[in-house]
Design goal:
alpha+beta; set domain protein methyltransferase, domain 1; set domain protein methyltransferase, domain 2; 3-stranded antiparallel beta sheet; elongated; [fructose-bisphosphate aldolase]-lysine N-methyltransferase; plastid; protein-lysine N-methyltransferase activity; Rubisco_LSMT_subst-bd_sf; EC 2.1.1.259
């Protein structure tokens, strides 16, 4: 029964649609054993830097100055624009030029400057990219436009980072610091996926169309474009699932922002004599002139997802998570019946459960565990007679053997996973007392967070084991329903001699 529970190599965030109105981008196919997505411009200095309001007096780079001048000439910057780029602890951010009230519009960017599938379709490579996944076509478009001197966005690309602190850019030595973590497996899986997609594009699109792609495109180029989309793309605007918005993508994340409704698509003036759809960004917090403006990237992302997508984590322990992968083994003699019950109740042969620190176990996890562990004399619940009611029975303890088995398997899996880390929580805490570089700080935070969640899971099922003798199981509940068992659990009348 060891296959009841397995350590997941990723997170189930890529297995469900994202609901964020900011940058939430699923670039991988549904079902990938990987993680799911506004940006990290340069690098995060430390775990605590996300909360600072400090804005540097250092001038922005010439590239940023040129970019800003271009936005002015194109009419994107107007008297209504209440922000400017500034050097901030995160690298580059948007700073208020005046006092700004909560929910006040701080910038608007016309649709003609958006980089999205529509921009690809209208370009010279639109025809050859028409059959590609949207993110692949936009990635190729970014690479091609970056190489063109006549690109509309030629002043935008120099502002973009060559890489972030996302784990997809880490060296082997840096990745060794997240040994044993789910984030390591996820990162390696993402890198393999991206490499495979690039090889396919080379063969099917790039090499057969050398007139459109006259310059060599490397895997590093493709990883750059992938990272830009993972970290900077907005989604779920009106009719928009993948869009990069120059200027708006400079805004940074803060844990102090607890709402996600800051980005809107509106119809409005896009120039002196033109109207267009505009990307409108509001400040979720009141901000003083000279302070940085922040938004919330995604309230539901774990620290591992933040590290993979943006290259930072939050010190908030509630962002720590671990994904349990539960599955129905094909060798199970009741495989077909269990799979039918699982699918009827919204699950499948494999189910992923994201468990967050200080949060209760996800809905459906315990019933699914009981279903997978079901066997022996409890297998009668799998009969067709119980098909419409079996899940409600699984919401409660089925039998002592069933409950004991699932507790033991989960606890053994937690113990095995904890043994895979090369440091203890105490050692991680000791390291955090020193000033760590950004990537090591991420690594320490991730592995410490995963271990705390595993310990929490183990503690939950340890407590369940201690309660096994006090629980009420199916047979006792059934006898009570029939009036054959007292409230104290005593069997009534002559029936006792048959039990």
């Amino acid at each position: 029964m060891a296959t009841v529970f397995s350590v997941c190599s990723g997170s189930s965030a890529f297995l469900s649609p994202c609901t964020s109105h900011t940058r939430c981008l699923s670039l991988l196919p549904k079902g990938s054993p990987l993680l799911h997505h506004i940006k990290k411009p340069f690098s995060v200095k430390s775990l605590s830097s996300l909360e600072t309001q400090e804005v540097s007096s250092v001038s922005v780079s010439p590239a940023v100055t040129t970019f800003w001048q271009w936005l002015k000439e194109e009419g994107v910057i107007s008297s209504k624009t209440q922000v400017k780029p500034g050097v901030v602890p995160e690298g580059l951010g948007l700073v208020a030029t005046k006092d700004i009230s909560r929910n006040e519009v701080v910038l608007q960017v016309p649709k003609r400057f958006w980089i999205n599938p529509d921009a690809v379709a209208a370009s010279e490579i639109g025809n050859v990219c028409s059959g590609l996944k949207p993110w692949l076509s936009v990635a190729l478009f970014l690479i091609r436009e970056r190489s063109r001197d006549d690109s509309l966005w030629k002043h935008y690309f120099p502002v973009l980072p060559k890489e972030t602190d996302s784990t997809i850019y880490w060296s082997e030595e840096e990745l060794s610091e997240i040994q044993g973590t789910q984030l390591l497996n996820t990162t390696l899986g993402v890198k393999e996926y991206v490499q495979n997609e690039f090889m396919r594009l080379q063969e099917e699109i790039i090499l057969p169309n050398k007139k459109l792609f006259p310059f060599p495109i490397t895997l590093d180029d493709f990883f750059w474009a992938f990272g830009i989309l993972r970290s900077r793309a907005f989604s779920r605007l009106r009719n928009e699932n993948l869009v990069v918005i120059p200027l708006a993508d400079l805004i940074n994340h803060s844990a102090r922002v607890t709402t996600e409704d800051h980005a809107y698509e509106v119809k409005g003036a896009a120039g002196l004599f033109s109207w267009d759809y505009l990307f409108s960004l509001r400040s979720p917090l009141s901000v003083k002139a000279g302070e940085q403006i922040y938004i919330q990237y995604d309230l539901n992302k774990s620290n591992a997802e933040l590290a993979l997508d943006y290259g930072f984590i939050e010190p908030n322990s509630d962002r720590n998570a671990y994904t349990l992968t539960l599955g129905i083994p094909e060798s199970d003699p009741f495989y077909d019946d269990k799979l039918d019950i699982a699918e009827t109740n919204g699950f499948g042969e494999t189910a992923y459960f994201d468990i967050f620190y200080n949060q209760p176990l996800p809905p459906g996890m315990i019933p699914y565990l009981r279903l997978v562990a079901l066997g022996g004399t409890d297998a009668f619940l799998l009969e067709a007679l119980f098909r419409n009611t079996v899940w409600s029975h699984l919401e409660l303890p089925v039998s002592r053997d069933n409950e004991e088995l699932l507790c033991r398997v989960v606890r053994e899996a937690c113990k095995s996973a904890l043994a895979g880390y090369h440091t203890t929580i105490e050692e991680d805490n000791k390291l955090k007392e020193a000033k760590l570089d950004s990537r090591l700080a991420i690594a320490v935070g991730i592995r410490e967070g995963e271990k705390k969640v595993l310990q929490q899971i183990d503690e939950v099922f340890k407590e369940k084991e201690l309660e096994l003798d006090q629980l009420e199981y199916y047979q006792e509940r059934r006898l009570k329903d029939l009036g054959l068992c007292g409230e104290s659990g005593d069997i009534l009348g002559d029936l006792e001699k048959f039990m």
